[in-house]
Specification:
By secondary structure, the chain is an alpha+beta fold. It is 25% helix and 27% strand. It has one helix and five strands. A five-stranded mixed sheet has the order 1-2-3-4-5, with helices on one face. The longest helix is centred in the middle third of the chain and has 17 residues. The model has no long low-confidence stretch (mean pLDDT 96).
C-alpha cells in the first residue's frame, strides 16, 4: 500500500514486510540504494526489519535496532 499525504510525502506498507517512510519524491536513487543496504544488513544477520525511514537517505533509521 502506498500512502500519500497532501504535502506529497510517501509511506510504503509492504505485506509481511516493513513500513517504509519514503518522504518526498526527491533523491529517489539515493533512497532506493539506502533501503537496499539496510534490508541486506538485516538479512545478513537473520533479523526481520519492521520499519525503515529513508526520507533523509544519508541518515536512515530502522527498527529493530541492530547491535
Amino acid at each position: 500500500v502506498v500512502e500519500v499525504t497532501p504535502e506529497g510525502q510517501l509511506t510504503l506498507r509492504f505485506a509481511g514486510g516493513p513500513v517504509v517512510v519514503w518522504g518526498g519524491a526527491e533523491r529517489t536513487l539515493a533512497k532506493t540504494l539506502a533501503l537496499g543496504v539496510v534490508l541486506d544488513r538485516y538479512e545478513a544477520v537473520s533479523k526481520g526489519c519492521d520499519f525503515v525511514d529513508v526520507s533523509i537517505p544519508d541518515r536512515v533509521l530502522a527498527r529493530p535496532v541492530l547491535k
